[in-house]
Each structure stands twice: as structure tokens, then as C-alpha cells.
Amino acid sequence: MGDALVRAAVGDYQVGDGCPLLVIAGPCVLEDAGLTMHIAEHLRKLADELPIQLVFKASYDKANRTSGEAFRGPGLAKGLDMLRQVRDDLGLPVTTDIHESHQAAQVAEVCDLLQIPAFLARQTDLLMAAAATGRAVNAKKGQFMAPADMTHVASKLRAAGCAHVLLTERGTFFGYGRLVNDMRALPEMRQCGAPVVFDATHSVQEPGGRGGSTGGNRAMVEPLARAAMAVGIDGLFFETHPDPDRSPSDGPNMIPLGDVRGMLIRLLKIRHVVESMS
Question: What are the structural domain ranges in the chain?
């Protein structure tokens, strides 16, 4: 994109060149209203303290669980009620992922940002339905896709009327049950003219690593996030929980809620150095 300004709007936020870091964070899956508000209130306080723009994220349905017997979430209606409470009570923009085209309009009534899961990044009808809502759309790069392939994802969204596109890197399949990060993907995806987000927690997944569930290594979340921050990103995505080992989804990858503040402070120091060099 050369010297063209790379920007997108998410609700009242401006994301991209010259803007504060966008942080998309929350639990992997919604469990109950009390826990949801506890996590959101903690993140709200951090957003008030630190130079970040926070979007609260949680899923109402984990439709791609490894096992058919795994917990999927409260479902669309109850899940949106929980997200609406976060938005209304705490004044935070909220986001969640959609899996089917018919979900887009209903989710857009609550969410400022719609998320396209990595496994569904090539699904044209889903992208078009998300774009038609008029909301910003965050499309995650498929683990099976090259960074340059996200050009086509962004083009589909824009052709369908989406004015505010974000692209998220979350790792690439490396054999069976492993993901790796090629940091070249971050500037390559930004050449699509969209702000780029780094998903630090899904990048350390080990798909199917526990047989009937996904494994991971949360100890590698911050090192990868530091590398991404040094390369240059517009947003950071991570999932968090007060007790990740008790989370019904993606626990091995998640950051303990009590560790989030320290991690963000360290990452923002790297961002400050990077910005001072431009």
C-alpha cells in the first residue's frame, strides 16, 4: 500500500497508523453472567489505566470443538445478552465470532466488531453477510492459508460493502498438531490495506494435542507477542480467564487474568520503542 494511511474504525475507536493499540481480549467462551462481568470489569480497569483501546471478546458458541461432547457455550440468545450487559454496563465495545450467515445481523445488533473464525475465512457467503451489517469485520487468517491469500478475503468484504476491515494472524499449521508463526505474515497482510492484529493465544495452540481437546503452551504467548510488537502490529488479541486450567475451552493457551496487566505494560514498552524509530 506504499505510503497510504492504513486505518479502520471499530465503534468509536480508530485503529491503525498513528492510533493507540487495539486490544481484543476476554474469555474463550462465555460461561455465566457473573464470570463474564468479573473478567470484563478487570479489563475495563486496565483500559482506563493503559494507552490501549479495549474490545471485549467472548464466544457464545464454540462450533469447532475437537470433541462433539465438549462444552460449546450458552448459545446465541443467552450469549448476546451477556455481551450486551458488558457493553451497556461498562461502556466497552464487544465482539464475538459468527459461524453461519444467518447469525450476522443478530450479532451486529450488539457487537461493534464481527469476527470471522480462521477455519471459515474463505467462506464467501459468511463474509458477505458480515459485511452487509455495516459493522467492522475482523477476519482471522486460516491456519492453512498464506498471508497473501488474505488479499482475497479483504476484497470480498470490501466488495460486499464493508468499509472497516481488520485482519488477524493466528499461526500456520506445521505438520500435525502444531502451529508456527512466520512474522513476515504481519507486514505482508498489512499490504492488503487493513490494520493487522496478532492473536497471541491461538498462536500457541496444539490442535487435538490432548486427544479429545486442544492443547497449547501459554508460556509462549508473551514471547510471540513481543516479537509481533517488535515487527509492528495495530492490535493484539488474547484470551484470558481467572483460572485458565478450569476454563471449559482453550485453557492451556490462555493468560491468567492476574498476569494481563504486567504483560501489557511490557508489550507497550516495545511498542513505544518501535514507534520512536518511525
Answer: 8-207+221-276
Q: Give me the chain's average pLDDT, please.
A: 93
- Provide the strand spans (E) within 106-245: 113-116, 136-140, 165-169, 172-173, 179-180, 196-199, 205-206, 215-216, 235-241
Residues with Cβ within 8 Å of 89's Cβ and at least 6 positions away in sequence, in order, are 37
Q: What is the Cα–Cα distance from 209 to 231, expressed in whole angstroms?
A: 29
Least Cα distance to 231 among 187, 174, 169, 175 occurs for 187
Q: Which residues contact 125 (CB under 8 A, 6 or more apart)?
A: 101
Tell me how far apart the alpha carbons of residues 68 and 52 are, in angstroms, rounded to a whole number: 37
Residue bearing the bigger pLDDT, 247 or 1: 247
φ/ψ bin of 227: left (φ > 0), alpha (ψ from -120 to 50), beta (otherwise): alpha
- pLDDT tens sequence across 20-67: 999 999 999 999 999 999 999 999 999 999 999 999 999 999 877 555
pLDDT of 211 > 50? The answer is: no
Residue 1: the pLDDT is: 43
Which residues have CB under 8 Å from 152's CB, separation 6+? 122
- CB–CB of 21/235 below 8 Å? yes
Enter the C-alpha cell of residue 270.
516495545
**Amino acid at residue number 128:** M
What stretch of H or E contains 242?
none
Which of 92-106, 199-213, 239-253 shows the lowest per-residue confidence on average (mean pLDDT)?
199-213
Cβ atoms 140, 154 nearer than 8 A:
no
Task: Give the length of the chain.
Answer: 278
Classify 8-207+221-276 by CATH class: alpha beta
pTM, 2 dp? 0.94
